[in-house]
C-alpha cells in the first residue's frame, strides 16, 4: 500500500509534539519513523534508531517530540486520516444519504483490511492507539461520529430517513454497527467475509431508517 502523504500537523493534532509546526525536520523525523515502523515495528524501534537513520542527535529529535509515543501518534494519525478522508469523500458526494451510508461500511472495512494485510506493523500501531486511547485514536472515533451524524441529518432532511427516533439514539446505534469494521482487532475476525458482512449490516440499518 502506498503511504499517504505527510499531512501538516497543527499544534492540536497530537500529544507530545514540540517546536515549529511546519519545520522540515519534523517531516523528516516522521518519514524516517514511518520506514522504521514498517520494517521493524513500533516496539522494536527506539528514538536512538531514528536519530541514527536521519543523522541527528537523540536530543534534537526531542525538540520536536517528547517521546517515541508522540512520534507513533503522528504516524497513526496519517494512517487513520487516510481512512477518514475516504469517508469524507463519500459524505460529500451528491447522491442519496442512503447510498452514501451504504457505501461507508465496505469502504471503512476494506481500508482497514488493506492496512491489516499489507502494513501489519502499522496496523499494530493503530491497535495500540485504540487500546490505549491515544489522541489519534480518539480523533478517529470522533470523525466516525461526525460522518454518521451528517449522513443521518442529510437523510432526514431529504425525507429518506424516519424522524421519530431521537437523533442521538439513531447516531449511536449506527456508530455501534460501524465499530466492528473500524476497530482493528474486531475487523480481524471478519476478514474472510467482509463483503457479505458489510452488505448485510448496511442493509439492516437502512431498513430500520425508512420512514
TrEMBL record:
Keywords: DNA-binding, Transcription, Transcription regulation. SUPFAM superfamilies: Homeodomain-like (SSF46689). GO terms for molecular function: DNA-binding transcription factor activity; transcription cis-regulatory region binding. Residues 23-83 form the HTH tetR-type domain. It comes from the Bacteria. Residues 46-65 bind DNA. Signal peptide: none annotated. Pfam families: TetR_C_27, TetR_N. Residues 1-20 are annotated as: Disordered. Gene3D superfamilies: Homeodomain-like (1.10.10.60), Tetracycline Repressor, domain 2 (1.10.357.10). The keyword Transcription applies. This is AcrR family transcriptional regulator.
